[in-house]
Design goal:
289 residues, single chain, 2 strands, two-stranded antiparallel sheet
Length: 289
C-alpha cells in the first residue's frame, strides 16, 4: 500500500498538475531580495523562498489534509486507537509526504535557476530548506498538542504521551525532510525519492516487527494490539523519551551529511558529527527495553 502511494505521489510531481497554480503564485507572491539593507539572516530569507515554492504544490495540500484528518478525528473509546492516533498512524504518513516533497524539490525545480542567481552559498540553501522543515515540524507539534487535548478525559489518559514524548509526530516530519534533503544531494531525483521512501518503509517494517528492537524504528504503535484481547492496553517496552532523542540525533546527522556534500569547511562539521553520532547511539541504547 505504501509503495503504491509513493508511485502515486511521484506521478503527481511528474505530471505537474499544480503547475498553473505555481505559476500564478510565482507572479503574485513576493520574492526575497538581497542587498545591503537585507536585515534577516540568509537562511531565514531562503526559508521564506522555499515556503513560497512549496505552498502551491499538490503534495503540500495532501500534507495539510492528512494533518487535518489527524486533528479532527473523534476520540475513540478504546486505548489502541485513542493513543496511537494521537502519536502515530496519520502522522507517520505526513512524514512520508514531506520526505517525497523535499527530495523532489531539492533535486529538480524550475526555480533552481533563480536560487542559483542569489548571492548565497550552497550550504546556505541547505540551511534554508532545513529551517523550512523545522518550521513545518513545529506546526505539526502544535497540531499534535491540539489532538492530545482533544482525547483528554478518556479511560486511557495515563497512557497518553507527555510533552517531550508528544514530539514524535514532529520528529517524523523533521526526519522525513532531513532524509529527503540528504538523498536529493546524493542521487538524481528519479532515484532519490523511491530509494529514500521505500528504504524508510522497509526500515520501519523490519525493525518494527521485532520485539526487542522496535524502539529503533522511526514510528511504531505505542499500544500493542492483542487479537486475543482487543480491549487490552499494553504499551511497548522501552523508553519513548529516549526514542525521540534517538530520532532527533538522526535528524541532526542527516543535516550534517547534507552540509558535508556541499563545498566549504569540513572540520567543524566532522567533529560535530562524531559527537552527535555518539549521543545518538547512546540514546538508541537507552531507548531499548
Amino acid at each position: 500500500m505504501e509503495i503504491l502511494l509513493i508511485v502515486g505521489l511521484l506521478m503527481l510531481e511528474r505530471l505537474r498538475v499544480d503547475l498553473p497554480v505555481r505559476r500564478w503564485c510565482a507572479r503574485v507572491l513576493p520574492r526575497p531580495t538581497f542587498g545591503p539593507a537585507w536585515a534577516v539572516p540568509v537562511p531565514v530569507a531562503l526559508a521564506g523562498f522555499d515556503v513560497r515554492r512549496l505552498v502551491p504544490r499538490v503534495l503540500t495540500l495532501l500534507v495539510a489534509l492528512v494533518m487535518l484528518r489527524a486533528v479532527s478525528a473523534g476520540r475513540p473509546p478504546e486505548a489502541y486507537n485513542g493513543v496511537n492516533q494521537t502519536i502515530g498512524f496519520y502522522w507517520a504518513m505526513t512524514g512520508l509526504f514531506v520526505l517525497v516533497l523535499v527530495a523532489t524539490v531539492g533535486g529538480r525545480d524550475r526555480e533552481q535557476e533563480a536560487l542559483a542567481a542569489l548571492p548565497v552559498g550552497p550550504r546556505s540553501r541547505v540551511r534554508g530548506v532545513a529551517l523550512t522543515v523545522l518550521l513545518a515540524s513545529l506546526v505539526v507539534y502544535v497540531l499534535a498538542a491540539l489532538r492530545w487535548l482533544k482525547v483528554q478525559g478518556g479511560s486511557y489518559d495515563a497512557l497518553l504521551p507527555n510533552g517531550w514524548e508528544l514530539a514524535q509526530p514532529a520528529l517524523m516530519v523533521l526526519g522525513g525532510g532531513m532524509l529527503g534533503l540528504l538523498v536529493a544531494r546524493l542521487l538524481p531525483v528519479w532515484a532519490a525519492v523511491p530509494v529514500a521512501a521505500i528504504g524508510a518503509i522497509f526500515w520501519t517494517g523490519a525493525v518494527g516487527a521485532t520485539r526487542d528492537w522496535v524502539m529503533l524504528a522511526p514510528v511504531y504503535e505505542w499500544v500493542k494490539y492483542d487479537e486475543r484481547n482487543p480491549a487490552a492496553a499494553v504499551l511497548h517496552p522501552g523508553s519513548f523519551g529516549w526514542h525521540n532523542a534517538f530520532l532527533l540525533g538522526l535528524c541532526g546527522l542527516g543535516l550534517l551529511a547534507a552540509l558535508l556534500r556541499e563545498h566549504g569547511p569540513r572540520r567543524g562539521l566532522v567533529f560535530t558529527g562524531v559527537g552527535l553520532t555518539t549521543a545518538t547511539v547512546a540514546a538508541a541504547l537507552l531507548a531499548l527495553p
